[in-house]
Amino acid sequence: MLAPTRLRTEAPHREITRLPTHPVVALALTATAYLAVSLALHHRVLGDLAGSTTGWTSDAHLFVWWLNWFPWAAGHGQDPLFTTYQHYPTGVNAMWNTSVPLLAFLLAPITLTAGAVAAFNIGMILGPVVSGLALVLALRPYINRWLPRSIAGLLYAFSPFVVAHSSVGHINLVWAILPPILLWAVHAIFVTPGARPARAGMLLGGGFAVQTGIYSQTAALGGVALVVAAACLAIRRPQLAAERIPSVARAAAACVATYVALVPYPLYLLLAGPARPRGQIRDPATSGADVANVVVPSPLSSFRFGTGRLGEQLHSHPGEQGGYLGVALLIVLVVAVVALRSALVRVTAAVGLVLLVLSFGIDAVVLNHDTGIPLPWHLVERVPLLAEIEPVRFQVFVALCAAVMVAAWLDHLADRPPGPGRTAAVAATLLAVATWLPSNSQESVPATVPAFFTRSAQQYLDDHDVVETVPRITGEWVGGADPLLWQAASGMAYRTTGGYFIGSDPRHDLLLEAPSNLYQDVAEQITAGRPTSMAGAGAAARQLRAAGVTVVLVVDRPGIDSAPLIEWTRTVTGSPGRRIDDAWLFPLRRWA
Description:
Layout: H1 4-7, H2 23-41, E1 52-54, H3 59-75, E2 82-83, E3 92-93, H4 101-106, H5 108-114, H6 116-138, H7 146-157, H8 160-167, H9 171-174, H10 178-191, H11 197-212, H12 216-236, H13 238-243, H14 245-262, H15 264-272, H16 308-311, H17 327-339, H18 343-359, E4 363-366, E5 369-374, H19 395-415, H20 420-434, E6 444-446, H21 451-455, H22 457-460, E7 466-470, H23 482-489, E8 495-496, E9 503-505, E10 508-511, H24 518-527, H25 537-546, E11 551-555, H26 563-573, E12 578-580, E13 583-587
Parallel strand pairs: 7-8, 7-11
Antiparallel strand pairs: 1-6, 2-3, 4-5, 9-10, 11-13, 12-13
């Protein structure tokens, strides 16, 4: 724990960098600047907000489904946090998935008027803006001047982490508001606890509840980060830490009580709800960051300084390569630690360093080569729930720490007398910050929906129908979730046995998509042009009926000859089928 005067930077030359405006006006101007940057980042989707999605993976279409699902479920008497509209009849536990219920609620007016695709794109654009503003506000107890705080907010809002996840359509991660909330909580609970620590704890519990409504994994990451921050503060001032144990304990109790009171049903679904995964979701050996990414930028960075080939060797894909700090910014951070006798800078650096090491996972991986060197995350890889964390995503907290240190350094420079030295230091710092500039590589993907789903699905199907679609829903990152987009566009006119989700069923402890069946296996062989036999049609029909399927829907796809698929489906369903718009509909009666 720290004396408050050591954390806050005094500002005798405050007029140099503080905006001469009312705080509300300053906040509006900052928000406008952040919005302009976010619009530039996502410029490729601006001309077609309702017809394409930012981000090149199927995850974007999965998020569109969830954004559509929540307002639809609320209006139709369905449980918004557990759905059988995917993976019927077992269903999908929304709390074990990237279901973003809070964002779905906030964006519902857009979803209900312009559609879920437009809501997703607007959410992607607004996420960095809100995250950056959250940091600007959270830094107020630490740094007086607005300009250093706004630069820190900009740095954090468009950090390599946010840009990386924006490129793959991860709306749950570009809304990175919990780290700034925790920064505020550190000051309110650990540094300068007031007379009512329970009040701060309640507010923090509300923050964790909000994050649970965006992405529960980040809430778990935040819990670990908060413990790390508390430990670093306690190590620095052990006597003061001991004195503040009672007030911190009251705040912690209030935090937990508030959190449980606000999200009891989501907690039940996470801890004991149906269809939750019963096996480990990810291999711990593959969910850490590449150590080299600290100094080697991904292809999403504008300035790569001749490291292009090295960047191509980084572990995982660019969407998870968000840990870049860069040599220039690292030099600035080291200089800030050495030059400033600032508790804020040094504690922040310690917390950031610990979280950076944790982000590497259980073993050090360098340029996709596992060195076998064990790292601290080994200690929690078997701990229930914590073991499901992807440590690579601690990178968002590392970016926050870097941004806070830059703000403190710029605030310090503002206190120095004007002159060439200060000008050079400020210029060098801003140049280092500019090395985080993203490249112009943000993609948009058409959200194409066959006419059947927008014109006819409501007429020919209802919510008692369980539809087996061809193509089926998969976790393939290109096109796999398209049928979910179509289901959403139909107005949730039917249920489906397919699904792209994390869960389980009576036969599988872990599922990352709905399991295939004999009908779909043969359909995929036909699509691939491989020789097939109709001999298994009877068994395929029995499997479909056992799953509750009432309709098989074969959708036209460019470049795919539908004739053999139609023949196979007729043999399985015993129905001649009916062509409607750009799809073939085959009833499959339970008693047939």
